[in-house]
Amino acid sequence: MFVSLMLQQMARWVAVVCLLSILPACLGYLNSQSLFSRRRRTSSNTLCMRMHDTSRRQFLQAGVLLGASPLLPLPQDAAHAVDMRWPELLAAQGSKDVGGVKLPAVGFGTYNTKQGIAMQAVEIALSQGVRHIDTAAAYGNEQDIGKAWRSSGLSRSEIFLSSKLDRQQLGKGKVREALLHSLQDLGTDYLDVFYIHSPLSSKQVILESWSELQELKEEKLVRAVGVSNFGVKQLEELRKENLPVPSINQIEVSPFNQRRQIVSWCEANGCAVMSSSWSRLSNKETGAKNWPKLKEIAKSKGITAAQTLIAWSLHRGLLCIPRSGTETEKEVIAIKENSPGGVAAIKLTDQELKQLDSLDEMLASGALGRTDGWSKVRVLVLLESSNLFGRRT
């Protein structure tokens, strides 16, 4: 009898110890699940804690690393942004008119972001006050983005969604079908911006696709139409055919490749310019020789190199869409650092802008500078069948 009672008591203690050991993980999971279901006007004190007051152990227990949970400890300024009314939030982060659409100056890009990771990254970005999410059919993550924004508690009118037509989706009769597919995956009945992803198609195909995009805009299935990776020659071809000038051109722009001719053309013709990610500028294969100078400026201001690039873009009147994953703690923190709240207070002096402007070495991280990470072999094959350099249509 005594032995039986002792065994029962030991079993109770083991159960208590097990419960206490898993409690932090359970709390982190429950907190992450409830974060996006709460109303945006929930007190920021209950939702957030300052990141610099959070130890690594607390960070891990909150389930941030390795995709365990999308929860990110929000800094106080970002929490305030989430609690703001929509017009106030838009005014605070700045915007630019893109074909009648007031597009937030700082968005979030999802290029090269896998399914699952994309959903978590977008959830975190939205929690940080980001309101413009950029994707593309070629990225293969539109369904994830649709799930992320629908679970955020935000209404569709409070979010800007942009996507792009892949090369295989271009051509007469194909554009509408591609759009409807993207709308279904994104869980929406319209896009704020719809792009032609690349000029690496024949002139005829580009013109047919651009004309069909105008029809979709008239039907209010898209609010604005744009192009991506287009140079001056391709932009001029649209204008020569008496077609509307794109509302926006998304290209890779940085202090290391300032694309001055393209930017000047766009500014002169009412076409906004959006700078896309610079994720490969600092690696060994395509590294910028002036990268250390950028790092010096960033260090002197107590900010990151990425924040410096974003600040430079904003000072030059460009829109930008930084990106990051969620597979490491560093990546998750980068989403917060590069959010509207993370860069809004950064001001570059005239001297710093002059230094950054002097770094131009015409370096592009993608092959030919406009291929969005495509292989050089694939680019050369596509160029052979295009008229970019006067070849057959």
UniProtKB/TrEMBL annotation:
Q: What InterPro entries does the database record attribute to this sequence? A: AKR, Aldo/ket_reductase_CS, NAD(P)_OxRdtase_dom_sf, NADP_OxRdtase_dom, TAT_signal
Gene3D superfamilies recorded: NADP-dependent oxidoreductase domain (3.20.20.100)
Which Pfam families does the UniProt entry name for this protein?
Aldo_ket_red
Q: Which SUPFAM superfamilies match?
A: NAD(P)-linked oxidoreductase
Query: In this protein, which residues make up the domain named NADP-dependent oxidoreductase?
Result: 107-360
Record PROSITE patterns: ALDOKETO_REDUCTASE_2, TAT
Question: Could you tell me which CDD domains the record lists for this protein?
Answer: AKR_AKR1-5-like
Q: Which GO terms describe its molecular function?
A: oxidoreductase activity
PANTHER family per UniProt: 2,5-DIKETO-D-GLUCONIC ACID REDUCTASE (PTHR43827), ALDO_KETO REDUCTASE FAMILY PROTEIN (PTHR43827:SF13)
> What name has this protein been given in UniProt?
NADP-dependent oxidoreductase domain-containing protein
